[in-house]
């Protein structure tokens, strides 16, 4: 009797264990459709830049050779993250006296968002033709999204309104029609105001202001808080209140977004190109305004974009992108008195910035010591100046005698 009770208890214990194991390991219907809590990270393989817009032999006739643009877009980095100003040299750079020529500027490591130099980097300034970075970006993103069936081959008829836009242009004529790609190349390389207006007019459904509203919406999405667009080309408004404005930091963010699209960067880095076929009426060889590019007047190693600008109220400005040994810097400067001084400074700034990437904290300490030495030396030099003047005055007096 006693043995039966023991056997019954053991049997119940075994049964309980079996039930528990069954409940733990059985597959509940529908579980396969539920998301796992910590799925393994997947690596997205970004396509090579050369794949963008390349015709495919496998495509049937009548299919746009740009139909693969969605897959060709490089995934966007987390560009909404704040910039780190901890190791930034603020204001003029002691080692680079030419930095005094900039009204404002920024030098940022695009990979880590570490700012190496900042001079009123969050202030709003007129940006002139640097505006066209946003115009080209928005148009290209419309192509990638296939908005209203848009492709780079979509033909756009020239309007009289576009023909009348002055400044840098490709002399559009209302009798002409151009593929969107050719207009975007004219915008990126020649900084053509008429092409920028025409693209905005077409994508705005005949209303340029509609496209400009979208430019401002896109700026907000990219966390460009000090940016305001009034037109798609950057020509000055009737007064300073209607000039397109942005901050160096905002323009750096816009450059980062543009860097995710190899085709945009390819156009921005093209030194020369034909607009209209060679041998035809109106053929132009358009030349890039960015002379920091290879083959330019003031080439800087690694520069591969992006856009210059000038109106009287902005001074000479540029947003420049640079890659050396796999490390990416973005520079924005506004307010220089000449294109030459702007370009020479940006070249020196890049040479100054790249060595600092290894140890930004140590580099900042070194610059601060240099600034302290210069400050100490300045009063001594001022004191010695009157003595020198007195000496030269004696020499003049002796000559007169």
Give the topology, please.
Layout: H1 2-25, H2 69-72, E1 89-90, E2 104-109, E3 114-119, E4 125-126, H3 132-145, E5 155-157, H4 160-163, E6 177-179, H5 180-190, H6 193-203, H7 208-221, E7 245-246, H8 248-258, H9 262-268, E8 272-275, E9 284-287, E10 303-311, E11 315-324, E12 327-336, H10 339-353, H11 360-400
Parallel strand pairs: 1-3
Antiparallel strand pairs: 2-3, 2-12, 4-7, 5-6, 8-9, 10-11, 11-12
Helix pairs in contact: 3-6, 5-6, 6-7
CATH architecture field: 3-Layer(aba) Sandwich
Q: Any idea of the CATH class?
A: Alpha Beta
The radius of gyration over CA amounts to 30 Å
Query: Strand share of the residues?
Result: 15-25%
Low-confidence stretches: 23-68, 74-78, 393-401
CATH superfamily label: DD-peptidase/beta-lactamase superfamily
**Global mean pLDDT:** 84
Give me the count of strands.
12
* Number of helical regions: 11
Total count of domains: 1
Question: The CATH topology, please?
Answer: Beta-lactamase
Give the N-terminus to C-terminus distance in angstroms: 144 Å
What structural class should be given to the helix and strand makeup? alpha+beta
Estimate the helix proportion, in percent.
25-40%
Identify the overall geometry: flat
What string gives the helices and strands in order? HHEEEEHEHEHHHEHHEEEEEHH
Largest sheet: 6 strands, mixed
Strand order of the largest sheet: 1-3-2-12-11-10
């Amino acid at each position: 009797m006693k043995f039966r009770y023991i056997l019954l208890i053991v049997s119940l214990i075994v049964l309980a264990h079996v039930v528990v194991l069954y409940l733990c390991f059985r597959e509940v219907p529908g579980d396969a459709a539920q998301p796992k809590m910590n799925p393994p990270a997947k690596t997205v393989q970004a396509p090579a830049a050369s794949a963008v817009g390349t015709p495919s032999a496998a495509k049937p006739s009548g299919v746009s050779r740009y139909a693969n643009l969605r897959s060709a877009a490089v995934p966007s980095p987390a560009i909404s993250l704040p910039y780190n100003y901890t190791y930034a040299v603020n204001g003029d750079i002691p080692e680079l006296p030419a930095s005094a020529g900039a009204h404002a500027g920024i030098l940022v490591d695009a990979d880590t968002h570490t700012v190496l130099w900042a001079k009123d980097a969050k202030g709003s300034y007129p940006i002139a033709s640097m505006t066209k970075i946003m115009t080209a970006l928005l148009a290209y993103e419309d192509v990638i999204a296939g908005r209203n069936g848009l492709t780079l081959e979509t033909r756009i008829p020239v309007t009289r309104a576009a023909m009348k836009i002055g400044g840098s242009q490709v002399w559009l004529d209302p009798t002409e029609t151009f593929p969107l790609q050719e207009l975007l190349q004219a915008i990126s390389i020649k900084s053509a105001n008429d092409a920028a207006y025409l693209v905005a007019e077409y994508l705005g459904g005949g209303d340029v202001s509609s496209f400009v509203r979208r430019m401002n919406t896109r700026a907000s999405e990219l966390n460009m808080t000090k940016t305001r667009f009034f037109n798609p080309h950057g020509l000055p408004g009737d007064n300073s209140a209607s000039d397109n404005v942005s901050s160096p930091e905002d323009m750096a963010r816009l450059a980062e977004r543009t860097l995710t699209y190899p085709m945009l960067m390819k156009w921005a880095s093209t030194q020369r190109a034909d607009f209209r076929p060679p041998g035809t009426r109106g053929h132009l060889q358009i030349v890039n305004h960015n002379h920091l590019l290879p083959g330019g007047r003031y080439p800087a190693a690694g520069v591969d974009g992006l856009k210059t600008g000038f109106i009287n109220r902005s001074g000479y400005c540029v947003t420049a992108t640079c890659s050396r040994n796999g490390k990416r810097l973005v520079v924005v400067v506004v307010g220089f008195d000449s294109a030459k001084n702007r370009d020479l400074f940006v070249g020196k700034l890049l040479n100054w910035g790249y060595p600092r990437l290894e140890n930004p904290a140590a580099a900042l300490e070194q610059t601060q010591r240099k600034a302290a030495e210069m400050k100490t030396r300045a009063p001594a030099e001022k004191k010695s100046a009157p003595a020198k003047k007195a000496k030269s005055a004696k020499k003049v007096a002796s000559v007169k005698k």
